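[job 4471] stage=fold_predict status=RUNNING
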Amino acid sequence: MKVTLLTVSHRQPAWVVDGCADYERRLPREWAFRVVEIKPAARTGNAAVDRVRGAEAERLQAALPKACRTIALDERGESWPTERFAERVRTWQGEARDLAFVIGGPDGLDPAFLSRAETRLSLSPFTMPHGLVRIVMVEQLYRVATLLAGHPYHRS
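[job 4471] inference complete, writing C-alpha cells
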C-alpha cells in the first residue's frame, strides 16, 4: 500500500519540514509514504475564493494516484479516536488500494473536491496552521502503524 499526503502548500518553515521528516523516517517501508506539494493558486486582492479553491482542486485531482482512496482533511469531517483510525487503516489495507490524505490551502478544499472524497476526516474542530496539520497527520500515521504492529508507542 502506498500512502500519499497531498498538500496545497510550498516553502514550509524548517520546524515543519524537520517534524514531518522525523515521523516519515519511522513509517513502515511497505507504506511507501510520500508528501506531494501542490502549488497554491494565486491569491490577489480581488481573487474569488471559489475560483482559487477550484484551481487548487484541479491540481489536486491531477496529482491523486490512480484508483486511490481519497481522505480529505476537513474540520467538518468525522473525528475518530486513534484506535478507530487504526481500524480504518487496517480495513483499507485489506482493500489493497493506495491512500491519499489531502490537506487544502488557506481557504480549505473546494466543495466539489470534498464531495468526491470517500472520507472526510477532522483532526480537530480547531482551525490549525497548515504546517501543524501536516506534522499531526504524519505523527498520527506513525501512531497507527505502531498500533497495527503491536508496538507500545501508543498508550491510551
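[job 4471] summary: The chain has a mean pLDDT of 93.
[job 4471] exit 0
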